[in-house]
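Slide 14.
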Amino acid sequence: VRLVESGGGLVQPGGSLRLSCAASGFTFSAYDMSWYRQGPGKARELVVSINGLSGRTIYADSVKGRFAISRDNSKNTVYLQMNSLNSEDTAVYYCNVPARGSWGQGTQVTVSS
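Slide 15: predicted structure.
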């Protein structure tokens, strides 16, 4: 299993970013995918998950209405659209396959003016 995140960077408060996670080494469409994040001095936390077959999503309360997960099973890629970013969203964002216990290397998102 290989997960490669991209799309992180520095953004001003109120801005947007789109993260991508390219997956390989498993049958992508059959698996739930998740995004986690770990802020400075904080524990890693679940941001959102998406079911592999139904597309059903579960969001953390802190990102509801601002973040949107999507997946393209033809490209083996899961995305995280992040809008209305604030300083509390500063973290390393990780892609995860819950059933496989697999993690990407993470991509840094910094929200600062």
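Speaker note: The longest strand covers residues 17-24.
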